Amino acid sequence: MTNSISEVEDSKVIFVIGSNPRENHPVIGAKIKRAKLKGAKVIVADPRRIDLADDADIFLQLKVGSNIALINSMMNVIISENLYAKEYVAKNTEGFEELRELVAKYTPEYASEICGVSPELIAEAARIYASDVASIFYAMGITQHKSGTNGVMSLSNLSLLCGNIGKKFGGINPLRGQNNVQGACDMGGLPNVFPGYQKIADDEIRRKFENEWGVELNSKTGYTLPEIMHRASHGEMKCLYIMGENPMVSDPDINHIKHALEELDLLIVQDIFLTETAELADVVLPALSFAEKEGTFTNTERRVQRVRRAVTREGVMEDWQVIDKVMGALGWKESYTSSEEIMAEIARLTPQYSGITYDLIEDEGVAWPVSSEKPEGTPILHLDSPMRGKGKFVAAEYELSGEMQSSEYPYLMTNGRNLYHYHTRTMTGRVEGLNIKSPVSYIEMHPETMKKLEIGKDEMIRVISRRGEIETSVVANDGILEDLFFMPFHFANGACNVLTGADHLDPQCGIPELKVTAVRIEKIA
Question: What distance in Å separates the CA atoms of residue 490 and residue 96, rounded to the nearest whole number?
Fold first, then answer.
């Protein structure tokens, strides 16, 4: 997030797209609700009428995969009606003329044909967004598409256009899907960077880490998860070490994932429970939960927070100790003694974390970047001007999804989460009360679609995609578009991700098009 969670409830205008915060990020969702009660204008764009849509001033029920057309059309209105921040654009941005030229064709009438939202609603949403300082909240409904990177860039364009970067109550705020996703990325959990997003290919950067660690480092970019699974399935990868992840439920095309994991010579899984993935492992390393270890998490607003041991479990090491032992067995001569020592190393090597110490975050966390000159951290990024110098408009065309309907697969399915479960139910699936609320896999359909298919409420049906088939029960939802289905991906039985695929990847970052899957429905005799 460029801005802080504490600002949300006093925001003036809030635009939520590709996210269901009331169910998936309920703390922030509650703050958006409070903002609305205090008078904020709220715009929601989603293929389903999510809970937050009932509170919205404008609800844009767009077709799945049409985000970029909608955003470009909003910018078309803002530019053509001279509602954009001319002074900010002139002083702080580059590429505006290219953007103006591209969005000129995305009139509300033109975009309406693509995204299925009325021209009047698109224009009204644009005017509301441009009427005051506005914040944008998005999640995987934007990113998990073949054009996900361009979707994010389009939101950046919209925010820059109205001068909402570097302002309180403004900014672009991605809502991370799991605890410490932000921290994992910050610490180099990506194939092309060291901690702090420092490029592996940069010789000077690489030398800095080599000098610290006393080893020679590879300059080759690593593999994305789809690339890893592809290589494993073809015998081109021999060993995989999975830590705190359950791809046998969470990843697209589970049949392919299972084949890939079974082709490995060695699969190591480190987790707190014996997950569906751990059941396939050659070696399972037990891990500690958040309440049993020391360290830090970095949350969605970039806030680095202490985690303290509240419960002691004998005979199980903390994650860093396990990794330290593995590195020692592989020949590394050094050894860490505490999580605090590791944080000191992070501060030495990672510019955004350079001022962080355990003493600094003893009582409460701090949002990076943090330095000795600025120990209070940075709740709002780009305050004086964009950190890169000038904010760059990256004009992006709408493009069709890779996964298309056909006579054999005439319907589209999208996916997400529900309020009661977390990711693959590794933890929430063990809570009786949550399982009473949401016990089994299901698929949502519009009642008119159910009538057309002669399917009844709670009926078990077969759902088939180009990759596999599952059996699941039907839930009626008159807030979803007709001929569009929705499934939560939490459940191992009747798993949504048997159907999804990694056939169509974002060429810029390698994310699979998880949010669009063509399917057909069969009744079960």
Answer: 42
* Shared-domain flag, residues 344 and 213: yes
| Whole-number Å distance between alpha carbons of 164 and 133 | 6
Q: How far apart are CA 426 and CA 294, in angstroms?
A: 21
Compute CA 405 distance to the chain's CA centroid, rounded to the nearest angstrom. Answer: 25
Question: Which helix (DSSP H) or strand (DSSP E) does residue 492 occupy?
Answer: none
**Domain assignment of residue 406, yes or no:** no
User: Are 101 and 159 a contacting pair, CB within 8 Å?
Assistant: no
Residue-range definition of the domain harbouring residue 261: 223-285
Task: State the Cα–Cα distance between residues 134 and 179, nearest whole angstrom.
Answer: 26
Domain count, the chain: 4
What is the rounded CA–CA span in Å between residue 239 and residue 394? 39
Q: Which residue has the tokens 């995969």?
A: 65
Phi and psi at residue 52, to the nearest 5°? -65, -25
Closest CA to 31 of 18, 46, 16, 45: 16
Tens of pLDDT along 300-341? 999 999 999 999 998 999 999 999 999 999 998 889 999 999
Q: What is the DSSP code string of 41-92?
A: EEEEE-SB--GGGGG-SEEE-PPTT-HHHHHHHHHHHHHHTT-S-HHHHHHH
Q: How far apart are CA 394 and CA 157, in angstroms?
A: 7
CA separation for the pair 154, 269 (Å, rounded): 38
Q: How confident is the model at residue 395 (pLDDT cuts 50, 70, 90)?
A: very high
pLDDT higher than 80, residue 121: yes
pLDDT of residue 30: 96
Angle at the Cα of 28 from the Cα atoms of 71 and 83, rounded to 5 degrees: 30
Please tell me the pTM assigned to this model. Answer: 0.95
96: enclosing H helix or E strand:
helix 96-103
**Burial classification of residue 159, based on how many CB atoms lie within 10 Å of its CB (0-12 exposed, 13-18 middle, 19 or more buried):** buried
Residues 122 and 266 in one domain: no
pLDDT band at 372 (very low <50, low <70, confident <90, very high): confident
pLDDT above 90 covers a percentage of the chain that reads: 94
Chain position carrying tokens 């396939």: 280
User: Helix, strand or coil for residue 442?
Assistant: strand
